[in-house]
Amino acid sequence: MADTRLKGYDLPKIHEKRKKTSRTKSASTDVSRSQKSSCRRSANSAKPADSSASFDVRSTPSICSLGSRQSLHAESSVSATTDPSSIDVKREKLKSGKFGPYFQNYFPGVSRKKPVEVRELSDDEDYDTDLEEDLDKHLLSQENVICSEDHGLFYDYKKLCRKLKVVPNTFFIRHAMEDRFTMKHRYPAYNDVRALMHDIQTKDTISSLNLEDNGIGPSEMLHLGQMLLHSSSIIELKLTDNKIGTFGARLLKTVLLYNRHIVKIDIAGNNIGEKGAKYFAETLERNVYLKELNLAHNSIAEQGALYLGQAIGANHTLDFLDISWNNITPRGATLFARGLKINLNLKILKVAMNGFHVHGTEALADVLKTNQSLECLDISANRIPQDGALAIARALTHNKGLKALKIGFNPLTVEGARAILDAVSGKHVTAIKEVDFEGVVLKEDFGVAAINVIENCNIDVIYVVQPSRRSKSFTYLDKVVKFLNEINVQIHDLFGDVKETNVILSSADVIQRLKKNIKDVSEEKVTSLTEILGESGNKRFLLHDLLQAAQKRKSEKEKIAMTPLTIYSPRPAKNPVFARSVTSLWWSQAETAWGNQLVGTDMKVPSLLTT
Q1: Measuring CA to CA, how many Å separate 462 from each of 354, 389, 450?
Q2: Distance between CA 381 and CA 357 in Å, rounded?
Q3: Residue 393 domain-assigned?
Q4: Which of 197, 219, 243 is at the close of a domain?
Q5: Domain count, the chain
Q6: For the segment 193-248, what is each residue's pLDDT rounded down to a tens digit?
Q7: Does residue 269 form part of some domain?
Q8: Residue 408 in contact with residue 380, Cβ under 8 Å?
Q9: 281 and 307 in contact (C-beta within 8 Å)?
Q10: Domain carrying residue 94
């Protein structure tokens, strides 16, 4: 490659030239260095004529012969810096300028400081400047101004929140001035509850406090109880679905013994147990201010019912009591009924979703015979059979104070429900205005009796008559029979060899019999029948029900065929339109009852034309 590139060149001569040029360059650099050093020495040794004038090395002209180019540069620099006033002006501008601190080392006679170090901080390195301290002071003063401009509202609450290191509850700040304060599903922490209760106690303006489903436990109940002991405005307290437990029940007992303002308490769903029921029983024996108490969903069981029964017998101020969903057995119901029997003030009692059964219901019926103060009784879903319903019916004939009875969702049977209905609407004078049988399986004849009671006795009867499975199956099988008649297939053609009518059939059995016994049936007809059977979910049915559906449809057709028709003569030819028409049959009463029976058949009922 070297031979091809350097072809035509004389290599020895080229090397000689390169050596000569390198020698000349090194000699010139040595001369220039020596000249520069001599110039510096001569400049330093020279002194100005005027000792008072300042001396600047940069302003002195070069005294060395530096060649043509260097001499021209030196002459131009001398001409530009000969005026000392212009130099001072520039120096002063630099001092007072924005970048003056960075050029302090170049100003003679000025105290020299270290130049400001300017560097870029990394992301991991913190900024440490005086600006942070000033900003903190500004933010603190601004916060104090905001607090002072709040007209004194919630200043103490915010101050306590800062002390407890919690964020102020904005929901509380927005609604704390309302008369009825409700805060659900918030789940505040321990210090949050502490700050809230302190502010509520300080203001003392809330009359109804609802803290439903907030996870309030025994530790939070300490501050809540402290607030209730000193509050004189709260008259309603709702702590539904929290976790106060037995300790919370004991604390509320202490509160209610000293607080004379609370008249309504709802602690449903707090799992206070039998001991908690005992604490509330002791409260009811001594408290004369409480009017309403809700202890539902608390698992007080049989022993708790005994405690509450004894307390109810000694209490004469409570109007409302709810002990639903508490696993009260028949024995617990009997023990509770003993105290209820001598109570003369309770007006509303709810004991739904327990297990009273027959014995508990009979004990409650004995209470109704003597207790005339009770106005509303809810014993729904207590496994009350027919015997219990009959006991209630007998008790209602002696009671003249009960106005509403809810006894739904119990296996009362139709006879038991009918006995209660006869008791409230019979000859005996009762105050019943509403009877609720919701969830009880009833028949159509009960519906007729209920309608009579509603119309004649002015009593609201709540009931639902559910259609039987047999009536539902007839509507479903009627479509099947109708389709079979359209394709000229009878039931005995399919199931003629089946002797017992109690055989259970499925949709597949009908399709299989149709394909096997009817030879000329097409696939389209089989598909149509499959769709009809699939609309009802391919339910199973008895052959007896299918035969009854076919017989019912046949009797309806015979009834329609035997109905006499009134035939009218042709209309007179007064109108030319009718004159050209043919003789027609005019049906009378086509839209009457018998005409409506033709709905669903192939026959068309024409409407009566008017002239």
Answers
A1: 22, 16, 9
A2: 10
A3: no
A4: 243
A5: 4
A6: 999 999 999 888 899 999 999 999 999 999 999 999 999 999 999 999 999 999 99
A7: no
A8: yes
A9: yes
A10: 66-107
